Amino acid sequence: MGQYVGRWLGRTFRMSAFGMAFAAAGVSAAGAATGEPARPSPNIVVLLVDDAGLMDFEPFGGEARMPNISRLAAQGTRFTGYHTSPLCAPSRAMLLTGVDNHRTGIATIPEVLPAAHEAAPGYSMSFEPGVETLADRLRRAGYRTLMTGKWHLGSDEGELPNDHGFDRSFILDASGADNWEQKPYMPYYATAPWFEDGKPATLPEDFYSSEFLVDQMIAYLDEDRDSEKPFLAYVAFQAIHIPVQAPREFTDNYAGVYDEGWHKLREARWQRAKEMGLIPSDAALAPMPAAARDWESLTAQERTFYARAMSVNAGMLEAMDFHIGRLMSYLDERGELENTIFVVTSDNGPEPSDPAIMPGMGLWMAMNGYNTDIETLGEKGSLVSIGREWASAAAAPHNLFKFYATEGGIRVPLIVAGEGVPAGQTIPSLSFVTDITPTLLDYAGVEIETDAGEPITGRSLRPVIAGRATETHAPDTRVGMEVAGNSALFKSGYKLTRNTPPNGDNIWRLYDLARDPGETTDLKEREPERFAEMIADYDAYAARYGVQAMPENFSYVRQIALNSVKKIAAANWPYILGMFLIVILVLGLCGWYAAEPDRLRHARGG
To answer: Which residues are catalytic?
Structure first.
């Protein structure tokens, strides 16, 4: 793959050895019961992708070439009924704690936090006292704990990974940032705030996010190469968050793939989902958002631009997968691969925002060295995203995308692979982001202390993985979620959901998820008793977890704009005040000069 891949020719991919290692790894830590010696506690690698929908991953039907994640899927278990939250920080908080986001302190993200919620319990935008992370618990059990990548869970004193159980960390505390340089991607941020071990850090000159995050993780693992301690390695990639960026060598692999537009991609993924058994064969395809543009209504240049943007998106996934392969190869060389549990998932569904059409973004981009040139799309200096229509296509066959508690916003891929995990298995049963921490503690043999801080609300997936159970959550268990007014409650195979503008309307709807995963048929009129029961269940959930009512006419788009203006004003108030005084002075001088002829006339007695 050209010079970029050539850099890593010295690092051999021993994936056949990887496959044989997993195939041979049939003995767990409980192996002593069979007369074999117990194995040491497993290493744990958590690979978190940003803004990838269920079918963005190749083993779930996506177009991007992802051979390493595909190998993990083939050697492990895929979950097709896994749900996260509709926004990144709440998802990350729940993944790392097993606790509902409102109890962690990360009820939503700072970018959309209304002023009315700032003092509410659960809305501090950082981990609150008593909340323990997976790293906290594993470190206490003797693990080395390492993290690289996006944090977005607080950057003030006491809020960074080194304060929450991680021995080493190199992280970004923002919703996103440039993948080639140390600079922000939107006006909300004045800088790209990177930290190493709790101190401000500077990125290298040859930085590319996926490459660097794996390099840094390997460096941390190498620091204590001879240690007999197991490790937790948490790599939170920037791929495929805005700005969508990738080396040309990867992007060019998708030339022509998306030329037929978002309608064709939606249809293709819908059909593929049925063929792969991800949805029932008679499941309806979710509709496009009401304000979505028709592909044929675009100019030829616009179609070329958006097709290339989606190619960059796929290229970014492939680039990330390439570097995941380097990490796997490194662990293989160390002899650690056989005893490592992998979790691969995404924080929420596809990102619909489109900087190219946002008011005022053109000026901000020009001032910050960004462009949208088609020839160099995705390369250094480029700022592009896939936009609302591609996001809807990427989320197909499900409804809507990131920000919303629809299936397109919260149903994402999950892969668990490693020792004791059956190969080639697909599990359709309902599971949630809060289940990840208890699952990994289960595999690590770490007992969940019931008296240690905020209690874990998730449940281990290990029984369904091992075939000892068919469901992680009993059918009549009610599981609620809410982020920024986008709400859902799951119970007995049904889903109650309500979503905010601009793509929602704040109306509660009821769906039979087993038959209608695209959320196309509202059943509240047909099943009023079930609807009323689930509304009561949601109200009980909201009261228990301290869910705040949203301000009237709330829209996340409007709130981001308002919060960005506040941030810009707070960071630049001396300049704004200076400009205001200059304007007042100029207006005063103009008024003085305008009155000068009258003064001269009066002075002469005219």
So the answer is: 88, 152
